[in-house]
Every structure is written in structure tokens, then in C-alpha cells.
Amino acid sequence: MTLRLGILISGTGSNMGAILDAIAAGTLDAEVAVVISNKAEAKGLLRARDAGVPTRVLSHKAYADRAAFDRAIVEILREHGVTWVVLAGFMRVVTRELLAAFPDRVINIHPALLPAFPGVDAQAQAIAYGAKVTGCTVHFVDDGVDTGPIIAQEAVPISEGDDRDTLAARLLGREHQLLVEVLRKIADGKVSMAPSLEGERRRVVVAR
Ligand code: GRF
What's the distance, Cα to Cα, between the start and end of the chain in Å? Predict the structure, then answer.
């Protein structure tokens, strides 16, 4: 079924761009219904507007707390008939307000092999740690920071000469592919939650 995506960004929006490219190329059965940024200066907004996608800027600073900010986001997503929400470089922690409105329908792309290096600047964390391999993860969002059930991961080696920026650039290329691959699987109905017992970590099943 055609996915109606709401994409949340804070910056460049290259992952959002990869989604738009795949849709334009006819390789992803989705429509971007709306792009929301918490930063007015996010470059991704220009890219979205160029593609004719409705955009909204919602500064988190204008809201009393995270929950109020998320309620405003949910309202916009509903106005645009969104069925799935993608956090693509969205630098805010989301609350149950958003998660309850889109249960198991909010995904995030993270530039590390979770559960290693959650949170901000995962690329610099991996370099500083001396890791030899890192990667990227697409996961369902829960109310923790990068803790939700993992949908897909891709490993990326770290070379001796890498610094934060060379690594980030290499990771980004893989992120774009992985995120679009996951959305294709979702559109094909191939991503579901495994049955789990009370207190057990929820896991994702991805059909081939
Ligand atoms: C990506 O590395 C993403 O994984 C991280 O922030 C970066 C956003 O890049 N959460 P872009 O805005 O999609 O270009």
C-alpha cells in the first residue's frame, strides 16, 4: 500500500532527499505528505519545497514542553493524512504523544550499530572509542534515546585515517540506501513485530 510519509528533520535532510529520489525514480511506493522541521534554517526544507512537498516549521522553543510540541506535530501529521513517520536527522527526543498517535509507525535512522553509540554525534563516539566497525541502524522509535526495536542494520568499517567527517560521509551513503530499503519492505507489508512475552524486549521480523 502506498505509504503516506511525514518526515521530521532538523538539518540537511539528505536522508529525506534519498526518499524523495526513490519515489521520483518509481522504486518506492510512497508519497511524502509533509516535511516538518524544528529549525527554520534547515536546508532540507528547500529540497522538500523544490520537490513540491508541503513543509512546516515548528520551533520547539515556542512550546511549554516536549509533549505540547509533539501534540502540535501530531496535529499537522493528521491534517496531511500521514500513515508513517520518519525521523530523518530530527534532533529532538519524541514523547508518547507522538508515539501513541502512530503506534509502531515511527522509525528513525541512526548512524551507528545500536545499541552501540546512541545519542548525538555517534560517528565521533565511534572514532573516540577506537571502534574498527560501525554502521547504521533503522529502528522503531520508543520513548528512549535510540532504544527502539531494530528493523535493519548495515556495518561500515572505520579506517585508520578516518575522522568524524570522513566517517560521517561514508555512513551517510549507506544510511540513504538502508532507509529506502526499509521503507520498501514496510510498503510491501514485510515488517512486523514478533510476538513477545510481558517484560521481554520487543523484536522486529522482516520477511524476505
Ligand atoms: C544522519 O547521519 C542521521 O543518521 C542522523 O543525523 C544525520 C542527518 O543527516 N540522525 P541528513 O539531515 O539526513 O542529511
Answer: 17
- What is residue 189's DSSP assignment? T
| Cα–chain center distance at 114 | 14
Residue 1: the pLDDT is 82
All three cell numbers of 146: 535510540
Nearest CA to ligand 1 atom 8: 89
Task: With beta carbons less than 8 A apart as the criterion, state whether 74 and 101 touch.
Answer: yes
Catalytic site residue 60?
Answer: no
Nearest residue by C-alpha to atom 5 in ligand 1: 89
Q: Please state, in angstroms and rounded to a whole number, the distance separating the CA atoms of residues 61 and 72.
A: 12
How would DSSP label each residue in 39-89?
Answer: -TT-THHHHHHHTT--EEE--GGGSSSHHHHHHHHHHHHHHTT-SEEEESS
Question: In which residue ranges of the chain is pLDDT below 50?
Answer: none
Nearest CA to 98 among 87, 89, 88, 109? 87
Q: Give the model's pLDDT for residue 92.
A: 94
- Closest Cα to residue 152, out of 118, 174, 178? 178
